[in-house]
Structure to design on (598 residues):
């Protein structure tokens, strides 16, 4: 399209280009700063001499963090809940999305089920009754306390059922004619066709489990059962106390600055690694769920 | 005849697998969502954990009366409302403006790189971001205060000054989420029919005129929809974020309902009182969300499922 841009518009375009790039840089700058601190030698890090580039490059903070058994344990707890939790999430999401994607005409009581499920998004018992339930079920200090309360991801069910609805009805009808029941339709027709959506939801679910720190904090009494993010939360709490309550960074805390940064950076790393895949899929996922004809 | 058509095609023999498929998920929801709703009875009891949900002594509305007499209550409700409303307004405005600015960019590589960078913070937890922010915003040599000192400003005690805390919360929340929230507007922008722009050019519209008469009307419906839906979140000031950034120094302006409930319930073990406050929040939340969904479906034809 031929455009007739005025000089004013060209000026705006240039300024806008710089502005947008500046905003984007602002989003990642703190993360780069963190990485630089974690890779710097202790003295420089503690004296706040590090900007965006490591001063006195070395990996000692990472070595120290990896030698820490607690960090390692916490990582394993997270890994276990991630595998267990994502599997449970995906099985339940997949099984629930299929029946709910039917029309009320084809599946009576569908709307009743939908309301039962959606109501849990609108109202909840709140923190204390939820905690009491988990403790009455004797799940405190069990890995299942991190998996079962979030087993059904209602939002994921809605995304997947909207995806199922876009699939051509004829496929299902053909399967029916050939004598296939609902289970055959689900696993032989819908599952292979919905791999992109399933991949997206697996990523969502994994990121959720990786990032969740609160259930670890309330449901785990023993510190060595903390998942990684909860372990970091406790570290953060100590740092915050040093920074805010004592008014000045105390010596003990300051000497750990590069170690602290290294641990945070390592907890960020897996997200960074799956991010290219995430980014490819999630735009699709969001649009898939929200913009409908 | 109608009855026949309604009941005949859906026989139990074909449809039982559908019910079976829903069973495991519904069972989990029943246990972990609906049982805690029953557990709300704690709010009317002098709850003792070992006696279960129905074994403790009933105290009627005592906790609610105590809640109303507590000076904390007004503070945390006000803090919650102020922070949430500021977040809603900024969380709507900034992504829309950013999407409009980004939409003007025609260098595709730049556009894609910018998108990749601004979406990223959304995927990090508030523990990670809190860890970074506590360091970056620190009073003694934090990066932000260092930069401000070049201009002769500060140092500011960002996370410890009650006057600054709410602003810090809103700004850092916008920083984390604006890119991700912009996705939906970018999708709407790319959905605008290019023919409309061609027609506008034919009619002699400048770039500004195109934005004003084509682009803005094109995304207005989705902006209105997002604004309507955000009403439901008016009591959600963001527990994860505030919990990881606040400290007793800023309770005056930064303590919200959710953080208060956590401290009262799980740290001070005032189960009944904390449940009562939580119930108050849940009920108001239910009303607000229902109203916002009703408005969205009434005025924007929005259906979530």
């Amino acid at each position: 399209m031929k455009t007739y841009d005025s000089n004013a518009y060209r000026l705006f375009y240039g300024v806008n280009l710089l502005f947008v790039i500046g905003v984007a840089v602002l989003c990642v700058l703190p993360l780069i700063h963190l990485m630089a601190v974690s890779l710097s030698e202790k003295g420089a890090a503690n004296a706040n001499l590090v900007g965006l580039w490591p001063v006195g490059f070395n990996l000692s903070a990472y070595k120290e963090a990896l030698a820490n058994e607690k960090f390692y344990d916490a990582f394993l707890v997270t890994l276990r809940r991630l595998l267990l939790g994502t599997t449970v999430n995906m099985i339940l999401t997949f099984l629930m999305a299929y029946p709910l994607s039917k029309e009320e005409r084809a599946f009576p009581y569908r709307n009743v089920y939908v309301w039962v499920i959606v109501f849990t998004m609108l109202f909840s018992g709140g923190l204390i009754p939820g905690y009491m339930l988990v403790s009455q079920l004797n799940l405190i200090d069990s890995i299942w306390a991190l998996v079962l309360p979030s087993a059904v991801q209602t939002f994921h069910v809605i995304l997947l059922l909207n995806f199922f609805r876009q699939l051509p009805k004829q496929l299902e009808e053909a399967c029916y004619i050939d004598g296939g029941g609902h289970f055959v339709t689900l696993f032989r027709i819908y599952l292979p066709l919905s791999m992109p959506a399933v991949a997206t939801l697996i990523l969502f679910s994994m990121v959720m489990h990786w990032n969740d720190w609160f259930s670890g904090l309330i449901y785990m009494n023993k510190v060595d059962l903390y998942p990684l993010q909860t372990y970091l939360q406790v570290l953060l709490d100590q740092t915050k106390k040093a920074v805010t309550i004592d008014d000045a960074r105390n010596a003990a805390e300051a000497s750990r600055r590069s170690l602290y940064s290294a641990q945070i950076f390592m907890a960020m790393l897996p997200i960074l690694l799956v991010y290219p895949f995430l980014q490819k899929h999630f735009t699709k996922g969001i649009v898939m769920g929200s913009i409908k004809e | 005849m109608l009855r026949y058509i309604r009941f005949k095609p859906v026989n139990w023999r074909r449809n039982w697998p559908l019910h079976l498929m829903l069973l495991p998920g519904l069972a989990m929801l029943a246990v972990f969502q609906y049982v805690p709703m029953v557990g709300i009875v704690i709010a009317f009891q002098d709850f003792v954990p070992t006696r279960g949900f129905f074994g403790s002594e009933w105290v009627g509305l005592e906790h609610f009366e105590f809640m109303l007499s507590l000076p904390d209550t007004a503070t945390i409700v006000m803090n919650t409302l102020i922070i949430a409303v500021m977040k809603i307004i900024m969380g709507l405005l900034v992504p829309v403006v950013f999407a409009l600015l980004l939409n003007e960019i025609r260098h595709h590589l730049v556009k894609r790189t910018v998108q990749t960078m601004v979406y990223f913070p959304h995927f990090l937890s508030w523990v990670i971001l809190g860890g970074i922010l506590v360091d970056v915003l620190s009073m003694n040599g934090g990066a932000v205060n260092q930069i401000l000192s070049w201009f002769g400003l500060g140092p500011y005690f960002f996370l410890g000054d009650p006057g600054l805390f709410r602003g810090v919360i809103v700004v850092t929340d916008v920083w984390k989420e604006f890119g991700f929230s912009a996705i939906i507007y970018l999708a709407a922008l790319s959905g605008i029919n290019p023919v409309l722009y061609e027609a506008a050019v034919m009619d002699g519209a400048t770039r500004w005129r195109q934005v004003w008469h084509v682009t803005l009307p094109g995304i207005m419906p989705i902006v209105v929809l997002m604004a309507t839906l955000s009403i439901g979140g008016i009591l959600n000031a963001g527990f994860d974020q505030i919990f990881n950034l606040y400290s007793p120094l800023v309770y005056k302006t930064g303590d919200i309902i959710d953080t208060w409930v956590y401290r009262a319930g799980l740290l001070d073990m005032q189960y009944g009182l904390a449940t009562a406050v939580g119930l108050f929040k849940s009920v108001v939340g239910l009303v607000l969300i229902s109203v916002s969904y009703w408005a969205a479906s009434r005025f924007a034809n929005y259906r979530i499922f």
